[in-house]
Amino acid sequence: MARLFVRPAHRRQVLARALVLRAMQEAEALGHRRMPLHTLPEWRPAQALYTSIEFERLEAYADVAVAEAICYGRDLDESI
User: Fold this and answer.
1) Is 27 contained in some domain?
2) Is residue 10 situated within a structural domain?
3) How many CB atoms are located within 10 Å of the residue 17 CB?
């Protein structure tokens, strides 16, 4: 998952959580087994969101172009 963004006027309305959960459902329906993602250190609300959905911190993976990125991942076959 990449580039999830909710405009400031619509934040704190559980939209980001709904988008992440939907992206997870769609990825699983397409046969993906795991979802990696990354965010930046200053995006603390995103980190809290991913942690609340049981994403775990990962070492940087190959597609991460920003050195300071914080990587997360989780299996998709787990219940949400």
Assistant:
1) no
2) no
3) 15
Residue reference for tokens 């942690």: 51
Res 80 pLDDT > 80: no
User: Does pTM surpass 0.70?
Assistant: yes
Residues with Cβ within 8 Å of residue 42, at least 6 apart in sequence: none
Work out how many domains the chain is built from and give that number.
Answer: 1
CB atoms within 10 A of CB 68: 10
pLDDT of 19-75, one tens digit each? Answer: 999 999 999 999 999 999 999 999 999 999 999 999 999 998 887 878 899 999 999
Q: Label residue 4 exposed, middle or buried (CB < 10 Å: 0-12, 13-18, 19+).
A: middle
